[in-house]
Every structure is written in structure tokens, then in C-alpha cells.
Design goal:
By secondary structure, the chain is an alpha+beta fold. It has one helix and ten strands. It is 19% helix and 48% strand.
Length: 171
Amino acid sequence: MKKIILKSILPILGMALLALAVAPGWVSAQQATAPASSSAFPPQPAAPLEGVWDSHLTATDCNGHTLFTARAFEMFIRGGTLTSVDNAPPTAHGPGLGRWQQVGGQKYRAPFQFFRFNPDGSFAGVQKIHRTILLDNDADSYTSTVKFESLDPNGNVVFSGCGTESATRLQ
């Protein structure tokens, strides 16, 4: 019985030892052919919008009547993602997440959305914000036009509005 087990294990053990003996050479050959950069993507130049901004929003009913004002910190991250946190109570909604893209010159689109919650903590739906940003020439401030929609948990629009935003680069 021991001879049968040994005969069946020896070829597997031999292959494993051979693999271990060859592996260091194979790994070093792979390292020699890898690009010098630690990333497969070449570095991209920073876009003027990248960074953290202190934003002030005035939301309206699209007829010029102010509904509310809010302040937010927004981070435009290289590659086109963005995060937004505002001064609403954290129990009202989660952080904003979205994407941004340059559409020409100093003009950008930066939609994002966040989950909304009822006062009892239950899910109330999603808030979608659509913005067109115009960055000033020195890239230290911007203004934007805003449209927003509040959706219920089933995706039905329950409220919408407009607004304006102004922001300065957080120093």
C-alpha cells in the first residue's frame, strides 16, 4: 500500500520541485520585461477642475423663487470621478457620487447623485443633480447652472428644481 501511494505521489512531487526551481527565473524574466512605471497607464496631465472646492448652491423652483441654500465640499478626481458632501444633516442623505468631463474649453459637465432618507431612517429615494460648470480663467473659481430631481424608491420624480452654484478652490 505504501509503495502504491509513494508511486502516485512521487511524479507530482517531482513536478512541484521542478516548478519551484524554474519559477525564480521565470519571475525575473517577467520583471525585466515589465514597464518601468508602476502603472500600466501613462500619467495624465492634471485638468484645471481637479481638486477640492468650496461650493455654495442656491436652489430655486426654476421661476426664481429660492427654495433653499446649501454649502458643499466637492472633490473632482483625476480620471473623471467626483465626490460631494454638504452641510445637510448626515441622516438626511448620503455622500454624492458622480462623474465629470470636460466638454470644451473651460466648460464641464458634472452630474452626481446621492441616496435620500426619511426622518425615521428609511430609504426615501435618490437625488440626481445635473450641472454645467464654467471654470473661470484663473481656475480658482467656477459657476454652474443646476437642475435636480428627487426620485422616490421606485424611480418616480416627486420633485424637481433648478439652481445656481458658485465655488472657490479650497486652499
